[in-house]
User: Fold this.
Amino acid sequence: MDKKAINQARVVYYGLFSALFAFVLEGERYKGVKETLEFLSKNPLDENSKKAIDNMLSIINAIGLKQLEREFDAIFYDLSSDPVPTTASFYEEERDDGKKRAIMVDYVLQSNFRRDTKKFTDLEDDIGFVLSFMQKLIEDELNGNDKAGFLEREVFRNVLNNFVDEFIENVYMHENSAFYQEVTLLLKVFIEFERVFLGFQKPKQVEKVKKEKKVNISDAEAARRLENKRKKSEEVVECVVEVGGDVEDEV
Assistant:
């Protein structure tokens, strides 16, 4: 097994997913995504991922990137259609800024990276930040930092692995999800690959009390997202998946 080659491929996948789920400036949100998908289409993980990638490319070619931005906002921002929660804390405690954020903050402080609060206003346990952080840790590991490899496994084991399946299901089932259904199919295949590569199992699902209506995001989370959207429209945010881009010291 060529671990270096696998890690290089993992960097590309994490960069792709962070670009698709992180909140960035309109017009910059999907920069580099099409090119990355075209590259991955030639070297897919399996037939299911190949199909999802090709479907994503077909949708991009048919409707353009602007429509994808509208779908993204409808899934994660539109308060009239049960926006999908994006923080690990919410999936564990049904509230944001909980224990998982504290865990992620500790991992960030142990790493060579820091959250750039002017550019990345989302919480440390937000799916977009977690994916971006994983990408940076793998890059650091490729540069010879063994501690980054350790942190990468801890982030996956204690944070990402515990909520990503429910997140995937919520995005896939969302009424406004079309392109993002294909994204979640690809993410599902990749997460299964990660579990095999890193040696972790899919966590057992904890039985939750059924409610008549799907749990919505908190008022605080709704306000935070709206404020993020306002800020992002005023800032130039670099997308972490720029093909051939430089590695930054801030996530």
Observations:
- Confidence is low (pLDDT under 50) at residues 209-215, 232-248.
